[in-house]
């Protein structure tokens, strides 16, 4: 089954309630939900605090704005998560995360697919290894 390529925000479907992020205020991980094209649809509150912004400010931005190493990387290969991203998740690769205000931090990023064949999304979980710091 081919996933429809979306070209405008109005074409996106609402994330099913079963896939929405829980409200976990004590968590210090950045958890993002992405459409298969890399556009952020949801960010947890702890992630917003970590990046010093409101979670809603990240919605409809491409993941490569936060993880610049993904700028020219295909997230999907066919209907599945890219084997390259699976490998980076498995080895706990350290990504540089850049907030909207320019602060940098290191974190391990883990990628997985969530949802059903009709409503598929990517979940990105970033576990910080350093505190955010402004670039020199």
Q: pLDDT average, as an integer?
A: 85
Question: Uncertain regions: pLDDT < 50 for 5+ in a row?
Answer: none
Largest sheet: 6 strands, antiparallel
Question: Order of helices and strands, N to C?
Answer: EEHEEHEEEE
What percent of residues are in strands?
25-35%
**Gap from first CA to last CA:** 48 Å
- Multimerization status: single chain
The shape, in one word, is globular
Based on CA atoms alone, the radius of gyration comes out at 14 Å
Helix percent band: 10-25%
Helical run tally: 2
Tally the beta strands: 8
Q: What class, by secondary structure content?
A: mainly beta
Helix/strand layout:
Blueprint: E1 30-34, E2 40-43, H1 45-50, E3 76-77, E4 80-81, H2 83-91, E5 94-98, E6 103-115, E7 120-128, E8 133-134
Antiparallel strand pairs: 1-2, 1-7, 3-4, 5-6, 6-7, 6-8
Descriptive report:
The chain has helices spanning 45-50, 83-91, and strands at residues 30-34, 40-43, 76-77, 80-81, 94-98, 103-115, 120-128, 133-134. It is mainly beta. The strands form 2 sheets. Strands 1, 2, 5, 6, 7 and 8 form a 6-stranded antiparallel sheet that branches. A hairpin with a 2-residue loop joins strand 3 (76-77) and strand 4 (80-81). It is globular. The chain starts with 29 loop residues before the first strand and ends with a strand.
